[in-house]
Amino acid sequence: MQTDQVKGQLDLLLLGVLRAGSRHGYAVISDLRERTGGTFDLPEGTVYPALHRLQDGGLLASDWEYVAGRRRRVYRLTDAGRVALVEGHQRWRSFAGAVDSVLHGLTVGAPATGAGAGATGAVAMGAVTMGGLA
Amino acid sequence: VSGSGDPAVAGDSPVEEYLDRLLAAAPGPPREVRALLAEAEDHLRDATAAGVAAGLSRLAAEHQAVARFGPVRSVTTAEARRQALPVTALARQIVASGLLLGGVAGLAVGVSGLLAAVMGAVGGSTFIVDISRSTHLAPADCARWLAQDPTAHSCYQAALSDWTAEVVGFRLVAGVLGGLALAGYFLIRHRWTRRQRFGTLPAAVIDTLAVTLFGLSGLWTLGLGVDWLAHRHNGAGQWLAAAPVALAVAGYYGIRVVAELRRAPT
């Protein structure tokens, strides 16, 4: 379940990680894993096509560097990427706030059934993601 | 680099085996494949080094790095999906490219209208339009044209004035529409870029289309202008006002095509 949630917000998460500065793929993924408290559990190799897609869309740019005899691609946010990040963050806050307003009063960790259990998970995921972008 | 002492490059190295399988299965043009492979190798080497630093044996660290990277199929499927061009994306590219080319064409027609106005002012209306003296001009039209141009001394002069104004006016309208098309192009580029949806047809396609479109238009109008100058004497200006603008735009795109051909790998 959490993997699907991460996939749904992967672009936003990647933009959020790169907001702090340029990074190569391994550093992006490591940072993402640390900042999401280990929630990120996608196959790491599938992040690269996502980075390439963001670059195709003009939200990221990249440069090749040589480190220890290896070619290394370093990604950075473009101006369009910063705009997309701000807008995506606002959309996410609006969505998470709407979900939270419906679930207000529920105690996380208490026995939950049906849709409530899934929705509680979504709020928990929202907290993790917000932390990653804040 | 070779040698059985370095498990990172040995035949039984999980990382090497993984990279071999990724190379064989990776989709796309060679440059994209090489880029993906270089990134995957860089990632797997870093992950292996981190595992070794954490106390794992090199072999165990490589196994862990490969496992975390995910199956080759999941990576290549995601990459192929990225490279695929959906119909909607193609439609967006055609719309964006059409607005760009249409806008440039409209502006070119508008500039030719300005040029026609200058030519008409210098060479007279008969340089822009050709109305035979024997042409029957309806009295009702004459009345309307004379009302629009009180300085005209005859229906013929008023007709020349009206037709010239039409030649210039319609082209200026086309220029305004071209400007609007370009504004639309920049608007959707701004909006679609933010949504990661912006794209145009490849530059080589657009530039080749432009060279063909404007080049043929320029040659055609130039031919008509020269022909009218030689055989009809009047009205050649309407064509000669369009030809240099079209040929100038064709020349600009031609330079771009040549530059692209020089950049293209041989």
Characteristics:
heterodimer, A: 134 residues, alpha+beta, three-stranded antiparallel beta sheet, 6 helices, globular, disordered C terminus, B: 266 residues, mainly alpha, 11 helices, 0% strand, rod-shaped
Please give the alpha-carbon distance between the first and last residues of chain B. 30 Å
Based on CA atoms alone, the radius of gyration of chain A comes out at 16 Å
Q: Give me the side-by-side strand order of the main sheet of chain A.
A: 1-3-2
How many H/I helical runs of chain A? 6
Strand runs of chain B, count:
0
Structural class of chain A: alpha+beta
Helix-strand topology string of chain B? HHHHHHHHHHH
State the end-to-end CA separation of chain A: 23 Å
Q: What's the alpha carbon Rg of chain B, rounded to whole Å?
A: 32 Å
Helix content of chain B: over 70%
User: What composes the largest sheet of chain B?
Assistant: none
Low-confidence stretches of chain A: 112-134
Total number of helices of chain B: 11
Assembly annotation: heterodimer
Task: Give the structural class of chain B.
Answer: mainly alpha
Q: How much of the sequence of chain A is in beta strands?
A: 5-15%
- Give the largest interface: A-B, 29 and 27 residues
Low-confidence stretches of chain B: 1-8
Explain this structure.
The complex is a heterodimer of chains A (134) and B (266). Chain A has 134 residues and is of the alpha+beta class. Helix content of chain A is 61%, strand content 13%. Chain A has a three-stranded antiparallel beta sheet. Mean pLDDT of chain A is 78; it is low at 112-134. Chain B has 266 residues and is mainly alpha-helical. Chain B has helices at 14-25, 30-53, 58-69, 72-83, 87-123, 125-128, 139-148, 155-194, 203-231, 237-240, 243-263. Chain B is built from eleven helices and no strands. Chain B is rod-shaped and about 105 Å long. Chain A binds chain B through residues 11, 24-26, 29, 42-46, 48-50, 52-54, 56-59, 67, 70-73, 80, 83-84, 87, and chain B through 35-36, 38-43, 45-47, 68-71, 74-75, 78-79, 81-82, 193-198.
